Amino acid sequence: MTHSDGSITTGTATRRFDPDRRDRLIDTTLDVIARHGVAGTTHRKIAAAADVPVGSVTYHFASLDDLLAAAFTRLAERTAAQYAQDLGAAASPDEALDVISGYILGMLGSPGTLFPSYELYLMAARRPELRRITDRWMARSRAALGRHFDEQTTVMLDAMIEGLSMHSALSLEPLPRNLVREALQRVVTPQ
């Protein structure tokens, strides 16, 4: 019997009809990683945050590693798509540098991506199978940058963005926007 709340009764058990549960678990995993890091992420924490039984998590994902890979893939795809959209809206290399500066200083993009991104980088450094995710992410980032800059400049900018973003995120004193912008400009137009 199907109830008005979408739940289904079969025999004596009632279960909730939740066709988007797998996707919700992936998104919830990113939230748990942002709060607790990968080391503190467990099936139980994910289930509690998603308000589902633990068995539902293990039903949809064979292992925690599979769930982490799915979550990191989603993070990379969303971030790369937003980055490409924002850089695509830039009408010139100068405007592209403004967009990049905003990303570095955390002014653009989703605030829940910083810690999960660094968790992914760390895991990928230790687990080569996750490098496919970071490699695709970097390729998409470089393609977005390549709309405005030549190939060598794109590679240098991509590396600089990662380094400056980390400094910006970890520094007790915020990096001045004009310094970030000047550093990017020097890569684009060496003196």
Automatic annotation (TrEMBL):
Domain (HTH tetR-type): residue spans on this chain:
19-79
Question: Which terms are listed as keywords in the entry?
Answer: DNA-binding
Report the domain of life of the source organism.
Answer: Bacteria
Q: Show the SUPFAM superfamilies listed in the entry.
A: Homeodomain-like, Tetracyclin repressor-like, C-terminal domain
| DNA-binding region (UniProt annotation) | 42-61
Q: Which InterPro entries match?
A: Homeodomain-like_sf (IPR009057), HTH-type_TetR-like_transc_reg (IPR050109), HTH_TetR (IPR001647), Tet_transcr_reg_TetR-rel_C_sf (IPR036271), TetR_C_31 (IPR041583)
**Which residues, by range, are in coiled-coil regions?**
none
Q: What is this protein called?
A: TetR family transcriptional regulator
